[in-house]
Amino acid sequence: MAYPEQILGSVTKPARYTGGEWNAACKEWYKTQIHIVLSYPDVYEVGMSGITLPILYQEINELPFALADRVFAPWPDMEQALRQAELKLEGIESGRPLSEFDILGFLLGYELNCTNLLNILDLGGIPVESAKRSASDPLVMAGGIGAMNPEPLADFVDFFVIGDGEGVVGRIAELVRDMKKSGADRHSILLELSALGGIYVPSFYEAEYGQDGKFKAIKRRVDSAPIPVERIIRRDLPAFPQKPVVPLIETVQDKGSVEISRGCTRGCRFCNAGMYYRPLRHRSQEEIISAVQGLCNSCGYEEITLLSLSSGDYPGIASLIGTLNQAEQMQGVTLSLPSLRIDEKSLDLVEALSGRRRSGITLAPEAATSRLQQVINKVISEEDILLTAARAFERGWTTLKLYFMIGLPTETEEDVIAIGHLASKVYDLGRFSPGRRPKLRISLSTFVPKAHTPFQWFGQIERSEIIKRVNLVRDNIGHRKINISWHDPQTSLLEAAISRGDRLLGRVIFRAWEAGARFDGWDEHFDYSRWEKAFEEAGLNPAEYANWNKVPGEPLPWEHISSGVSLKFLADEYQRAMNGDTTPDCRTGPCNFCGLEKRVPGCHRANKGEQQLESNS
After folding, report:
1. Which candidate in 182, 385, 433, 503 could, as Cys together with 393 as Cys, close a disulfide (CB 3.0–4.6 Å)?
2. CA–CA separation, 12 and 141 (whole Å)
3. What does residue 161 show for φ and ψ, rounded to 5 degrees?
4. Which residues form the domain of 152?
5. Which span out of 317-326, 335-344, 397-406, 506-515 was modeled with the highest average pLDDT?
6. pLDDT tens digits, one per residue of 385-396
7. How many of the other CB atoms lie within 10 Å of CB of 351?
8. What are the Cα distances from residue 191, in Å, to 158, 178, 559?
9. Which long-range contacts (CB under 8 A, 24 or more apart) does 81-87 make?
10. What does the pLDDT read at residue 58?
11. Is residue 263 situated within a structural domain?
């Protein structure tokens, strides 16, 4: 079935729910044996901007026995319409209620989407709490970088895929199909899934707390359940979709995307993506060119992004851009490169991109003093920052954006004042640029400690201190016309609390959702009072999760999940940060023994092209 016309006619952007997009895979329900619906728990325009969902969607639909569909968080007007009409949320292609699928898989990328996840379950006719689901209910699966601390969502998700899901999702589909055909119960299916490796089933474990109510450990309830659960690491990268679904409405990232590399070896100590996606793996130029040409031929995008955590580190990136610029399919298509380093070589790369307009360029120093840069292991001299800015202005860029963090571990007042001084120097450089004076924008994000990073033991600064430091930056910019933006301190507090949370936070998330929390990552919908009351009713304090400082050796709620980067390496990095010592990039130096060398021997040499990572068997 599909939503009635009166429902779609009453909501904004009905194309979010109707399907019919170019390249959508509309397989027949009764001709497939297992049905999986994939969801990014945010609005359609955000969910359709990522690259993981299209990869998994293609992989599942290429299986002759499986059907993959999509669903996203309905906007509040659609939720209201569905509840008033007593209708269930449906898969976009099939028009089937979510409760009729075998598996509902969530991609977790942002902590503040957690209430949307609960809302999708409820609107789809699926019991929100996993303990209340019956044999007829779908298995609820979740994965992605947000699954590296699964505990806050442990009450709602049946099993988590830890690490690279590509390749594994096909094995999951086959196993669930076969076991359902044999009449296996829910518990038996979860037991078999747990044995696959890289699968975490929360109901097979329990959290222990001390008399003071603080987390102590995760213990097994089922003897066969693995501890730790090892992250799945693909040694090759999956085939990239050349015919992804093309949205009918404008999305947040309204362009084609091709992942050219996965992973990063630069070792920024605040960055969970840099730890989670290790080791560094590159696609071949031939594969990238084929994928880009496929997108041009099948999707009609005017811009294609070459995605990587550090695009300039791709070997032969200039040659790749040159080849793409000369391709016949690329005529009239703009290339873009995010995540470039701060140097003149990056400007050369941007200039080489086909059809690039000289509108804006973004630089991310994160810290403004050499001392703090050494602490975070991201060293970019002020001289390089100013030289790059000067060259950008000279070459005609009209807008420059600088990203900084406030509240980084060991940050002092001098470090914060230096942000204002550095921004002022960049602004003054723009006074001498040709043409109209460029605009300078400064973005201040609050440090959020993330699991499985060297900074997981450091707390977030308190709200009053965040405001004080923002004002300190503003005061040291003076009367210069520099646009400054910063994150809502209450949003940052909640993000930190969930990112470091234990299983008790499930009660808070549930209560906040019941109170109406939805789209908490959207300023117009975020209402901290709902969360404040939810924490109070659960007898918990968000600051105790966000602001605590620990030292290596103290128990952490996510220690039973292994990223592949060893706890010893993270603890050593914590100490090097405290000492102000940097750690070199293993791509250009010796192995740093982060722990991944045990899983992928010689991975640092492979990054330098001395050997190829072998494919998974």
Report:
1. 433
2. 29
3. -95, 115
4. 5-230
5. 506-515
6. 999 888 888 888
7. 12
8. 11, 14, 21
9. 81/7, 81/10, 81/11, 82/7, 82/123, 83/123, 85/4, 85/7, 87/3, 87/4, 87/7
10. 94
11. no
Continuous segment of H or E residues that includes residue 81: helix 76-85
Question: Confidence band (pLDDT; 50, 70, 90) for 272?
Answer: very high
Neighbours of 279 (CB within 10 A): 25
**215-220 and 205-209 strand pairing:** antiparallel
Written as six digits, the tokens of 47 are: 């969910």
Rounded-to-integer distance, Cα 375 and Cα 269, Å: 8
Comparing CA positions, the residue from 367, 377, 374, 370 lying closest to residue 267 is 377
SS (H, E, C) 182-206: CCCCHHHHHHHHHCCCCEECHHHEE
Does residue 440 fall inside a structural domain? no
Gap between the Cα atoms of 78 and 89, Å rounded:
9
Examine the pLDDT at 564 and tell me if it is beyond 90. Answer: yes
CA distances from 435 to 363, 393, 396 (A): 22, 10, 8
User: Does the pLDDT value for residue 616 go beyond 80?
Assistant: no
Cα–Cα distances in angstroms (integers) from residue 476 to residues 406, 412, 413, 417, 442, in the given order: 15, 15, 12, 6, 13
Residue that is written with structure tokens 């250009």 in the block: 588
Token pair for 238: 């999956």
pLDDT recorded at residue 613: 35
Q: What are phi and psi of 133, to 5 degrees?
A: -85, 150
User: Per-residue DSSP letters for 17-62?
Assistant: HH---BT-----GGG-SEEEEEEESS-HHHHTT-SHHHHHHHHHHT
Residue 345 structure tokens = 């070589």
Q: Which range (111-125, 135-149, 363-377, 586-600) has the least confidence?
A: 586-600
Q: How many domains does the chain have?
A: 1
What are the φ and ψ backbone dihedral angles of 579, each rounded to 5 degrees? Answer: -85, -10
Residue 201 inside a domain? The answer is yes
Q: Which pLDDT score is estimated for 398?
A: 80
Dihedral sign for Cα 360, 364, 366, 369, please: negative
Tally Cβ neighbours within 10 Å of residue 240.
23
Residue 516: which region, alpha, beta or left (left: phi > 0; alpha: psi -120 to 50)? left
Edge-to-edge strand list for the sheet holding 360-366:
360-366, 399-406, 439-446, 482-486
Omega into 41 within 30° of 0, i.e. cis? no
- Residue 74 sits in a domain whose CATH number is 3.40.50.280
Q: Is residue 9 part of a domain?
A: yes
| Reduced DSSP (H G I as helix, E B as strand, rest coil) percent helix, strand, coil of the chain, to 5 | 40, 15, 45
Inter-residue contact 593 to 569 (CB < 8 Å): yes
Q: Which residues pair with 445 in a beta bridge?
A: 405
Distance, CA of 526 to CA of 495 (rounded, Å):
12
CA torsion sign for 464, 486, 420, 378 is positive
Q: Mean pLDDT, to the nearest integer, of 520-528?
A: 95
Residue 608 CA to its chain's centroid (Å):
26
Encoding tokens for residue 111?
Answer: 């902590």
Res 617 pLDDT > 50: no
Write the burial class of residue 127 (CB in 10 Å: 0-12 exposed, 13-18 middle, 19+ buried).
middle
